[in-house]
Amino acid sequence: MNMGFQSAGSMRFSAPTTRVRPLSQIGSGRQSLSSFMGRVQGNGSSVSETENGAETASHSLHRLHKSSAALRELLQRRAERQVKEMNASEAGGALQSRAAQRPAVPAEMVPARSMVNVTFFLKFHVDYGQHICLVGSMPELGSWILSDAINLTWSEGDIWNATVELPSTSVLEYKYVVVGQGGHAVAWQSGNNSVLAISDGDEEMEVHDNWGGNPGAKVVAGGNLPVTREKKLLSWATDLESQVIQQRQELRKLRMELVTAQEEARIARDEAKKLKQALAMAEAEKINSTQAVRDVEAVNSVLKEQIKDTTASFRQALEAAVEILGSDDKETKSKKKSSK
Known about the structure:
Strand content: 15-25%
Helix content: 40-55%
Distance between the termini: 176 Å
Radius of gyration: 47 Å
Structural class: alpha+beta
Largest sheet: 6 strands, mixed
């Protein structure tokens, strides 16, 4: 394979117009993942045709991650609010028993992306006092700011290399730059921006580039056989599509769980309302019963007074009757004596 190696001192360098073109500015950015994969499969050697779809797919996965996390948080907040409402109810015992029978609401959040050690290799000869930097679209690669770029280390055979930690499940653009003693750019790597996809399962990766930026640069991930950057990007896109499908299925499941939780919350509120109404009726009956007891006690007190008065009157009448009977008895005895 023709690596296109040349001496930096034997050629006139000018910074190419495509050296720092962000991926978000290439094309309209509205291509679907399926059309993106079709373009890559149709022409795996064209990096520039895959850049729009890769960025769109990455944004789609990011939005799905956010939506999934937001739904989980919403479910968790709703479940906590339901428990608080049930605990606050005066008839909370029955409602708590119902809540204990509900399935647990998933509360796990989207895990943070892991970091992958990516080692870049480039074979290129530069003049004395010059060195090569790596700059790209991610903050780890300087965000296209040359002063923040990664310095490569020279080794025997004009092999330059550098190891950088980059986030998994991402796609990035980068270029190599020949930098002079004053820190200014002597030459930028020719061709379009190089595009590298890092999958979720990657732990270590080696990228063997060429100065011409030609398609076919080799990528070795996790000790597997070397593949081209284009095939690695296609594999990343295929994995991404599977993750998107899985995320959509998970979102459907979460929406169904949310609807179920809302229905259970409505039933719980209706039950709480009924129990509160029953409790209010019981309180009203208790008040009425208490008032009835007080009324009976008042009537009983009046009756006792009446019985007391009646007893006194009866006693007085009885005493008067006894006196009358005593007087009559005396008169009878006197009459008897007189007749004799």
